[in-house]
Write a structure and sequence with these properties.
Length: 239
């Protein structure tokens, strides 16, 4: 009995004298792919060729979540017009479904007025069915948006070919132009005509057939007094 007690006491003393060390595994000690992939914090990666776990040679990029630029704005502050000085003429954002969101294009929105399209983004106008982007005249497929291009220059709807083109000749300027100035402000060689619209002015005063045209000679601005005299003389000749 005493021997058994002494043996038990010796074993207890020996166990108490042992020092235990708990350390984390290394990648090489992880023998299965599943265990290897679970320990990405150690920088482990599974080598499918060697069928072994090892320290990854690819740097681990931490995942960082950023708030989207447009999401941070309320309706009144949503930068539909021009959010920055170096981001072009148009906006990066649009106000859609009561929130400011990244602008992805006009045609997704079925709006029938320019006002409704502009409320989404200043890049948009309507073609009568849905919004389209303000762009080159040639991109407009319907007559309604065929007014101005992205640069602000006038467009003209060609009824023969049903296409929108640049208004780059006198006969393509709007019929609403009623004065010589209206026409020349757009194309310097154009003057007004009876009923509205523009025609080529010619190079000389004698080329002008209407009193409202007799205000300007190409290459020379006439003083107001001279304009009056020419107009008066022309009026006298036609009486």
């Amino acid at each position: 009995m005493n021997k058994q007690f002494m043996i038990f006491a010796l074993l207890l003393t020996l166990a108490a004298s042992q020092t235990y060390s708990i350390t984390s595994c290394t990648c090489a000690q992880l023998l299965s792919e599943g265990d290897c992939l679970k320990n990405t914090t150690l920088g482990c990666a599974w080598d499918s060729t060697k069928k072994a776990c090892a320290v990854s040679t690819t740097p681990v990029t931490p995942t960082v979540t950023y708030a989207a630029y447009c999401d941070t704005f309320a309706e009144t502050d949503c930068p539909k017009a021009k959010p920055c000085t170096d981001c072009g003429s148009y906006a990066a954002c649009a106000w859609v479904d009561k929130k400011c969101t990244f602008f992805t294009g006009c045609t997704a929105f079925a709006k029938t007025t320019d006002g409704d399209c502009q409320a989404i983004s200043n890049r948009c106008i309507t073609d009568g069915t849905h919004c389209v982007e303000v762009d080159a005249c040639s991109t407009y497929k319907k007559q309604l948006p065929c007014v101005k291009n992205a640069a602000g220059s006038l467009c003209y709807w060609d009824t023969t070919n049903n296409t929108c083109v640049d208004a780059n000749t006198c006969d393509k300027l709007p019929a609403t132009f009623a004065t010589d100035k209206d026409c020349r402000d757009v194309i310097s060689t154009c003057t007004t005509k009876t009923g509205g619209g523009c025609v080529d002015s010619g190079n000389n005063c004698s080329d002008q057939t209407l009193e409202i045209q007799c205000l300007h000679v190409i290459g020379m601005e006439l003083p107001a007094k001279t304009e009056f005299v020419i107009m008066h003389q022309h009026h006298q000749q036609t009486r």
